TrEMBL record:
The keyword Phosphoprotein applies. Its cofactor is Mg(2+). It catalyses: 2 GTP = 3',3'-c-di-GMP + 2 diphosphate. GO terms for molecular function: diguanylate cyclase activity. The lineage of its organism: Bacteria, Pseudomonadati, Pseudomonadota, Gammaproteobacteria, Alteromonadales. Residues 284-414 form the GGDEF domain. PANTHER family: DIGUANYLATE CYCLASE DGCM-RELATED (PTHR45138:SF9), REGULATORY COMPONENTS OF SENSORY TRANSDUCTION SYSTEM (PTHR45138). This is diguanylate cyclase.
Length: 420
């Protein structure tokens, strides 16, 4: 796990500020205030533990970016810092293969620095597709992305890009030129939008020439963003970061809206969405189970609410383990639901009864002790194709299981005689 950041800054004050930001990003700074000290600190650590380096352009013993060269030659992704936005120094910095450079001018620049270092770790699992027939342009774009640790896919045609997208689920951004051999960039964008919404996949159009309409054309075809070639290094990286962060924020919101906060299982809302989207036509051979923990209130009363939470998490983990291919959910409180598609009722019954025995046998670890719990299960199945009927039928059976002694699986015997 890479988690060190080599920080070589001009003076103790700057070093302290940058080190604090690095710690806020959850990483460990290895600090120095001169190139000589930086070399020594670097030599004391394993090179692979460095996620990146943040290096001042000008240091007392390295006035012209020599410390930046040192870090780049040691194969560490390097972010350069400068005292101010000076175009001459900027050009000197960008002649080198730096990840980015930050003028230490205002708080927003420091905020950008934190986002940038957090991204360097996340980018290792974020895919970006670059589609262009222009080799020089494509290579330049890929090199900038690689410096940011993105996993990059180089494509010349739209169809190559389509297959990269279907093979690699971690792709979050497509950067496409307008002139492609098999279709125009804007037609490609429009066809991508049939498969991926703007919230699932970001698309940036790029095009050269003087035509002012190309950006509008790309955006009307479904692109999230557009950049004119030749683009400036910094603008390109800021836009890439913004587009990828947008997709990730939507994913995070969607995950939070669909997940039960305590157990991490899908919630009731997501359960209905998944069942109805994936199984618009429910099959004849299917089953649904409502699982309710027995006398759960007494766990809370005896061991406290945290212990109750621990029991819910333990049972949720068992459900995930024993029903990895089924649609599972925490319905609320101490009630869980499992939908078993394409499963004969007798097989579903056996699996659920085995699960009931697993729960009964499980010693659940609490902070100061272990405890045991049982569950009651109501099942429904083949008699109906409607999810709301399946749930109300299972609920009646669950009620019956609770009223006839608990710790059992019940189903409507008149409806499932063959299996009885
Ligand atoms: N710790 C904890 N308790 C919860 C949570 N959600 C619901 N509960 C508690 O679960 C308990 C459910 O109690 P009851 O409905 O009486 O059910 P029970 O004690 O399991 O009894 P039976 O279902 O009849 O076997 C209530 O005390 C709720 O406060 C939660 O997220 N965490």
């Amino acid at each position: 796990m890479q988690q060190h950041v080599l920080v070589i800054e001009n003076g103790d004050n700057n070093l302290e500020i940058i080190s604090r930001l690095v710690r806020r990003a959850g990483l460990t700074p290895v600090g120095a205030t001169s190139l000589m000290e930086g070399r020594a600190r670097f030599a004391q650590n394993t090179p692979e533990t460095f996620l990146c380096a943040i290096i001042a352009y000008s240091l007392p013993d390295a006035p012209k970016g020599e410390a930046i060269d040192f870090a780049i030659n040691a194969y560490i992704p390097t972010i350069a810092t400068t005292e101010s936005l000076d175009t001459l120094i900027r050009d000197k910095v960008l002649e080198r293969d730096v990840v980015d450079y930050i003028p230490k001018e205002n708080a927003q620049n420091y905020d950008y620095l934190i986002r940038l270092i957090a991204r360097l770790e996340k980018n290792k699992s974020t895919g970006v597709v670059v589609v262009s027939t222009n080799r020089v342009q494509r290579t330049r774009t890929l090199s900038l992305l690689e410096r940011h640790n993105f996993v990059v896919y180089e494509c010349i045609t739209a169809s190559e890009a389509m297959s990269a997208l279907s093979d690699h689920k971690h792709i979050r951004l497509v950067i496409t030129d307008n002139t492609l051999p098999d279709m125009s960039g804007t037609v490609f964008v429009a066809s991508l939008r049939k498969a991926f919404s703007k919230e699932q996949l970001a698309i940036m159009g790029i095009a050269g020439g003087q035509g002012m309409l190309m950006s509008a054309h790309f955006i009307k075809s479904g692109a999230n963003d557009f950049l004119r070639i030749p683009y400036c290094h910094e603008e390109f990286l800021c836009r890439v970061m913004q587009n990828v962060e947008y997709i990730e924020s939507v994913e995070a919101i969607r995950r939070a809206a669909n997940t039960d906060y305590l157990t991490g299982l899908p919630n009731r809302r997501h359960f209905f969405y998944t069942v109805t989207m994936q199984h618009q036509q429910l099959s004849d051979e299917h089953a649904l189970a409502l699982i309710d923990l027995d006398f759960f209130k007494s766990i809370n009363d005896t061991h406290g609410h945290d212990a109750g939470d621990a029991v819910l998490k333990a049972v949720a983990a068992l459900i995930e383990f024993y029903f990895p291919d089924e649609i599972i959910s925490r319905f609320g409180g101490e009630e869980f639901c499992i939908y078993l598609p394409d499963t004969p009722f007798s097989e579903a019954y056996e699996r659920l009864d085995d699960f009931r025995k697993v729960v009964e046998a499980e010693a659940i670890e609490l902070p100061k002790t272990t405890t045991h719990i049982t569950c009651s299960i109501g099942m429904s199945g083949t008699t109906t194709q409607r999810i709301d009927n399946l749930i109300s039928d299972a609920d009646k059976q669950l009620y019956a299981a609770k009223n006839s002694g608990r710790n059992k699986v019940m189903f409507d015997k008149t409806a499932h005689l063959a299996f009885e």
